[in-house]
Design goal:
Radius of gyration: 25 Å
Number of strands: 14
Shape: globular
Oligomer: single chain
Number of helices: 9
Helix content: 25-40%
Order of helices and strands: HEEEHEEEEEHEHEEHHHHEEEH
């Protein structure tokens, strides 16, 4: 039997949508209103809920929000039950079992490709670690030096022509900081498919995840399996797309069509936004010399703004690292003990890198808008921000920085922090402390240097300043050198050393990036005033 949505139908406790509810689905019209259902009645009937405002509806985008036009459209799958998520993913791909048996902390990305290929992304390795397809379903992580940040798979599936599928770690075991990584992936991909399956019903952390995803502007779809238990109606998401699925019977046809329809609309939104940006970039934007009443002292204002922004980011980093230290000590004493310390810290570093990249990007956007607002004839906005950003991005890693910027920072088992730089010469590459037969030099491609550190892949033009990847080196998982072979008191000391060294290295990298931004913006704005227009 083919499933259908149960949109605008509140789910009672302990039940999933009945066949009558699935057969009388409502259709959402533009503007957030629900049309009458084929079975009669409307969304405002006593059996349903009132139509939601578009700004409050999780599956409708608020107006005035900018779309990541250079990001691929993706559906991020989340939920507290791994087996239910894997069953839905497998059913969408037409498989009986999940395509890859990935480690629990790793992300899984399934993209379209002309052939089937699987690779694991390990921080510090210059290229993906290939995984044979024949062994992908038998715990491939056992042959890897360390747990991968993500595993990517390509396969010639027609569904993947519309969108990419991303499976995530369990939501129940995620801290607030790690939840932000999942929300960031859903925001960039465009949609979150939350699977409510067997096991305990969703709790407050799951509801917080959904609300944060809605606030980030992503669409939300809720898939309910036959074995699911719903503890209570969720008023905030009564207007979302509730879909009843039975992956064991392969009953996901309606889910596939719903996601394809959404992906096609999302692609049009992003394509239209990209075309509008290109059209705006072609227009001549005069940048006349500031007058005495305007921004005559713009160099001093630029210097103050950049330095304050850098100081603010460094202060936030110090607070976040202090919290990571405290959480790491609690994990050693009251959590999984020394054996779980490496995995816990590595996940926290991924969350910290994601938050830091977003903070730096927001600070840079604010500085560019402020400087454009000081110049008569230049209007702050996405088009000029994009033009200035593209001009800076091309030379940020060359003449604007006195030394090479680190693409990532690797924390070794000895408590030291090693930099992974862009375009590192072969005689300056540092070997990661792993067994000699698996020893690989640290050095990453210059097109997307921090991508190997990411849980969800990022495009090369993601931000003006290059992001900083953070991870633990492979020797941190080795029992002879890592914290897993230490006593609790030693593991506490090791955690403290790692956090202290990270704070010093991160402060240096942030300072170097904002210094380069200051020089680049000063040069660019001076040239724009002399030439009479912003760079194209």
């Amino acid at each position: 039997m083919q499933s259908a949505t149960a949109s605008n139908v509140p789910l009672p406790a302990g039940r999933v949508p009945t066949s009558r509810q699935r057969g009388s689905r409502t259709r959402r019209q533009p503007g957030g209103r629900a049309a009458a259902s084929p079975a009669g009645g409307s969304a405002a009937d006593p059996g349903g809920v009132p139509a939601m405002d578009p700004a409050q509806s999780p599956d409708l985008r608020p107006t005035g929000r900018s779309w990541p036009a250079d990001e691929p459209v993706a559906v991020v799958i989340a939920g507290s039950d791994r087996d239910s998520r894997g069953a839905v993913l497998s059913a969408l791909l037409g498989d009986a079992v999940p395509p890859v048996d990935r480690p629990s902390p790793s992300y899984l990305t399934v993209r379209y490709g002309s052939r089937t290929w699987i690779g694991a992304y390990l921080p510090g390795w210059p290229e993906p670690w290939p995984i044979p397809v024949r062994t992908a379903r038998s715990d491939p992580a056992t042959s890897l030096p360390r747990p991968p940040r993500r595993i990517e798979m390509t396969r010639p599936d027609r569904l993947l022509r519309h969108f990419t599928l991303v499976d995530t770690p369990d939501t129940g075991a995620r801290t607030d900081s790690r939840r932000a990584v999942l929300v960031d992936a859903a925001r960039r991909g465009g949609a979150l498919l939350f699977v409510i399956g067997a096991g305990p019903p969703p709790q407050q952390p799951e509801y917080d995840l959904l609300r944060q995803t809605v606030a980030a502007g992503a669409a939300v779809f809720l898939a309910v399996t036959p074995a699911a238990a719903i503890s209570a109606t969720v008023p905030d998401f009564a207007g979302a797309s509730w879909l009843a699925v039975d992956p064991a019977a392969g009953d996901v046809a309606h889910l596939r069509r719903t996601l394809i329809d959404w992906a096609d609309r999302e692609t049009l939104h992003r394509t239209g936004g990209a075309l509008a940006d290109r059209e705006a970039a072609r227009r001549r934007t005069p940048a006349t010399r500031p007058d005495a009443t305007g921004g005559a002292d713009w160099p001093h204002q630029l210097d103050r703004s950049v330095r304050r922004a850098g100081q603010r980011v460094r202060q936030e980093l110090a607070i976040d690292l202090a919290n990571i230290h405290l959480a790491g000590v609690q994990e050693v004493l009251f959590g999984g003990g020394p054996a779980a310390t490496a995995g816990f810290l590595d996940g926290e570093l991924l969350a910290l890198a994601t938050k830091t990249a977003a903070s730096i990007a927001a600070a840079v956007d604010g500085i560019i808008d402020q400087m454009c607002g000081l110049l008569p004839g230049v209007r702050p906005g996405p088009e000029n921000r994009r033009r200035v950003g593209e001009s800076l991005r091309g030379r940020m890693l060359s003449d604007l920085s006195p030394g090479p910027m680190a693409a990532g920072l690797l924390c070794s088992a000895s408590g030291e922090v090693r930099s992974v730089s862009v375009g590192v010469p072969s005689d300056h590459r540092v070997s990661v402390g792993v067994p000699s037969d698996h020893r690989v030099s640290v050095g990453v491609p210059s097109d997307q240097p921090a991508d190997v550190f990411a849980g969800y892949s990022m495009p090369g033009s993601w931000s003006v300043l290059p992001p900083i990847g953070l991870a633990l080196a492979a020797d941190c998982w080795h029992p002879a050198t890592g914290p897993s072979g230490m006593a609790p008191e030693q593991a506490r000391w090791w955690t403290q050393q790692v956090v202290r060294a990270l704070e010093i290295a991160l402060s240096r990298e942030v300072t170097q990036r904002f210094d380069a931004l200051l020089r680049g913006l000063a040069r660019l704005l001076a040239d724009a005033i002399d030439l009479g227009e912003l760079p194209r």
